[in-house]
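Anyone else keep sequences and structure tokens together like this?

Example one:
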Amino acid sequence: METKRYTEAYSMQFQSYATQCFNLPNYEVYAMSELIGLGVGLAMGLVGLGCGYGMGIASSAAIAAITEKPEVFGKTVLYVVFIEAIAIYALIVSIMLTGKIA
């Protein structure tokens, strides 16, 4: 009997926290956390693919430009750094979304 009361109290506490956090009815909270997990995985995967593809194109063009004019090294490295920054932003967003689940 005591276990049932404790379980009900814990369940009620979690449900009230979930409804306050997401402003959703109780039954939709679990579906929302699954969708957030799917979104995090898709975001990181697609950003990784896009950044890898862009890095390949930008790096090959940068190497070609540097062989012709060595003084453009700083400008070409800057383009590659911008591509890396996009991947870092995606990582930060995925960490923030994962914090919503836990």
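And example two:
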Amino acid sequence: MINLAKCMEEIVKVGIIDAIPAGCLISDIVTYVSLIVIVSVVLVRFFLAVLFGWVLSWRLGSFREESAEEIAQRKKDIERWSNENNHFHANGR
């Protein structure tokens, strides 16, 4: 029975198409271009994050150390400024 099926297949068989249809080719091109774009965006974002973490972030987060006198003077200056801008004067006016 199997031999009969193979014989019938060879009788009916005309040929084999050995080319990729245009639609499949275009679909493959769009798929690969999309993959390349997505992977490149992810890699660029990753390397920019690494660059920021290693090179730039220490500049943004570094504050100079203040002494206790400087902190107290800054608090007094802020209090004086807020009192002047709120029209509150110590002399009772």
